[in-house]
Amino acid sequence: MTKLSVNINKIATLRNARGHNRPDLLQAARDCERFGAEGITVHPRPDERHVRYQDVRDLKQVVTTELNVEGNPTPDFLDLVREVRPEQVTLVPDAPDAITSNAGWDTIKHQVYLIGVVQELKALGCRVSIFLDPDPAMVKAAVATGTDRIELYTEAYASNYAADPAAALAPYRQAAELAQELGLGLNAGHDLDLENLAYLHQNLPGLAEVSIGHALICDALYLGLENTIQLYRRQLL
């Protein structure tokens, strides 16, 4: 069964808008787990515009499923991971001023760098996932880094799903099948929602985990957090 990891960045954004602790990010993480989430994802950025570095430290103390920390492995990010040692670290090559993640790694160009980072993170006891576009060359090169998993960047799938689901999924299925052949675990995330998630899950072999934040939190405004998490989990049955 594919696990649902709930990204709570948007809850932190709402909290930060008023400068207090409402909503309480730690309680939100506890509630997401209580409502059925099988993991909590956060993506702290250097400007701390949503999840802060201290939040990650605090979340490590309360998350009982799996804490997945995403980010560009800058020196500050790596220092945080060394301290917190989350269950999973997802390496994302986003620029400091990126609104959201918008591209996967070039695992050929940055292979030597990624090898060193992956080795250190695995030595800390973290499972490592590398954020990738559905490009067979990038999947093949990811193997040499020693990563445990790859996370397919699904924005293109989500953008093209309404016009032609099969065509939108095709490159992702090819990448997923190749990952299975090469012994890589498979995650996916970005712009997944209640309309496109079930089709992805049904047609992407070996999908271990999806991390979903923006759409899920938007749906929760209308449907309630508990109901929304259950609805997303049903797409993964």
UniProtKB/TrEMBL annotation:
Record-listed 1-deoxy-D-xylulose 5-phosphate binding positions: R45, H50, T100
Catalytic reactions on record: 3-amino-2-oxopropyl phosphate + 1-deoxy-D-xylulose 5-phosphate = pyridoxine 5'-phosphate + phosphate + 2 H2O + H(+)
Record keywords: Cytoplasm, Pyridoxine biosynthesis, Transferase
Pfam families according to UniProt: PdxJ
EC number, as in UniProt: 2.6.99.2
Localization (cell): Cytoplasm
Residues marked Transition state stabilizer (site): E151
UniProt entry tagged with the keyword Transferase: yes
Protein origin, superkingdom: Bacteria
Alphabetical list of InterPro entries matching this protein: Aldolase_TIM (IPR013785), PyrdxlP_synth_PdxJ (IPR004569), Pyridoxine-5'_phos_synth (IPR036130)
UniProt-recorded Gene Ontology molecular function terms: pyridoxine 5'-phosphate synthase activity
PANTHER family: PYRIDOXINE 5'-PHOSPHATE SYNTHASE (PTHR30456:SF0)
HAMAP family, per the entry: PdxJ
Family indicated by similarity: Belongs to the PNP synthase family.
The protein, known as: Pyridoxine 5'-phosphate synthase
Source organism per UniProt: Hymenobacter defluvii
